[in-house]
Design brief:
Elements lengths: L8 H14 L4 E5 L6 H7 L9 E4 L11 H17 L2 E5 L5 H10 L2 E7 L2 H19 L5 E7 L6 H13 L2 E2 L8 H9 L9 H20 L1
Parallel strand pairs: 1-2, 1-3, 4-5, 5-6
């Protein structure tokens, strides 16, 4: 989850779903973005020879001015129903309202925040961290992790951003995703990078998947 666009949320969602599917999990994607539905578009490009990954529109928000408690309860009910049929439910999309972001956190077991290594993303994470801390005080503590996306270990800025997030008290995945063409090409073809010939992209995504799977097993 990230309140900011362009950080790779759909790319991460579709690739993780593909990893879970290939590992034998029954997985689905819940697309919360009524205006874009990018995961659903990805699904339409997916071939019959790849593992099945269902994508559902789940947000239910009807207004362009706010997200009501009733809509939040409806979202929670929808995701709970999906969790009865699927081992893994991954939510995708940019929460267009603060209230929707809160509900996404509340109904999730693990919250993953992909970011680009920029000051804008750090400022956004401060807002998310504040929201997470408020929910924890209210008794709804969640496992929240930051994923450094488009990462370049040779850039000083990337390391400075990583330190800023650490100072903020955010937990950061050991795995990082680089800025690779394979991710963009895979989306177009309805694939995950583990289903492509780009071994470096597949290896870094597989490493992230293994890290997430280990976290899930501890819950």
């Amino acid at each position: 989850m990230n309140l900011k666009g362009g950080v790779g949320k759909t790319t991460l969602t579709t690739n993780l779903a593909t990893c879970f599917a290939h590992a034998g999990y029954k997985v689905c994607i819940g697309d919360i973005d009524n205006s874009q539905l990018n995961s659903k578009k990805w699904k339409t490009q997916r071939g019959d020879t790849t593992p099945e990954i269902q994508v559902f529109g789940v947000s239910g928000y009807k207004s362009q001015t706010g997200f009501s408690p009733e809509e939040g309860k409806e979202l929670a009910h929808t995701v709970k129903s999906l969790s009865k049929d699927y081992e893994i439910v991954i939510l995708d999309g940019a929460p267009v309202f603060e209230e929707l972001a809160t509900w996404m956190i509340l109904i999730s077991d693990i919250v993953i925040c992909p970011i680009q290594t920029s000051a804008l993303d750090v400022w956004t994470m401060r807002n998310i961290k504040q929201k997470i801390d408020q929910l924890a005080i209210m008794g709804s503590a969640k496992e929240v992790f930051v994923l450094l996306n488009f990462y370049n270990s040779q850039r000083r800025l990337d390391k400075d951003i990583e330190q800023a997030l650490t100072d903020l008290g955010m937990r950061i995945f050991k795995s990082r995703l680089s800025n690779r063409v394979a991710y963009k090409e895979a989306i177009i073809d309805g694939l995950g990078v583990v289903e492509t010939k780009d071994r470096k992209a597949a290896e870094e995504m597989q490493a992230l998947f293994e890290e997430i799977k280990a976290i899930i097993s501890q819950n």
